[in-house]
Amino acid sequence: MTNRLALILFLLAVAALVADGVLNESAATLFMLKKFSALTEWLAFWR
């Protein structure tokens, strides 16, 4: 992965987080963080 591609992907991710915060009051981000937390707990159980 080149630096240019990494920067583009980073800017897209930041833009998506900002758009979620402005348009949706960060509901989608909070939902995904809760699901990620549940996934890590489930994986820790099977470890």
Approximately what portion of the residues adopt beta-strand conformation?
A: under 5%
Terminus-to-terminus distance? 31 Å
Q: Pairing-aware structural class of the strands and helices?
A: mainly alpha
- Major beta sheet summary: none
> How many strands?
0
- The total number of structural domains is 1
Which helices and strands, and how do they pair?
Layout (H helix, E strand, L loop, with lengths): L2 H22 L2 H20 L1
Throw out a few tags for this protein.
flat, mainly alpha, 47 residues, 0% strand
Q: Would you kindly provide a written description of the structure presented here, covering whatever features stand out?
A:
There is one protein chain. This protein has 47 residues and is mostly helical. The protein has one domain (3-46). The protein contains two helices and no strands. The radius of gyration is 15 Å and the shape is flat. The mean pLDDT is 95.
In short:
With 47 residues, the protein is mainly α.
